[in-house]
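Researcher: I'd like a structural prediction for the single chain below. Treat it as a standalone chain; there are no partners to consider.
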Amino acid sequence: MEEARVVAWFVTGLRREAIRLTRKHRRMKEHELLILNEQLKGDTGGEALATMLNTVNPPADLLTEVENRLVLQEALALLTPLQQRVVVATILEGVTEQELAGEMGVTKQAVNRIKERALDKLRKYFVLDKPSRQVEPGPGRTTTTAPIRR
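Model: Treating it as a single chain, here is the predicted structure.
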């Protein structure tokens, strides 16, 4: 349990550092554009400016990309190596369960079972990782929260 807390603390620190670096990178690119624009004021055709802007243009949303990669790494770290292999192959790479079963030398049902257990583990961690969840009250009930089973 203590090891999980240390890992969670470390992942949170890495995520924050990645966000900080992404913001710093974005500010530097904006500053570079301002400097380039200042130097190109004498250019009447605008061709040099267009060329510079095309070469300096950063990825569309670097922050989102970094965050997505960190979340993916965090999710995969929760799984066993076998579960990681199955999830990456079937979900991220688009390999069918039948093809993966042939590569691994197991049945399609075994691959499906491994994948389902991995997805259940991820669901419990990411979706149900809250102290209580909302439930609809049944007839005669007045409470709207129920504790989560762990």
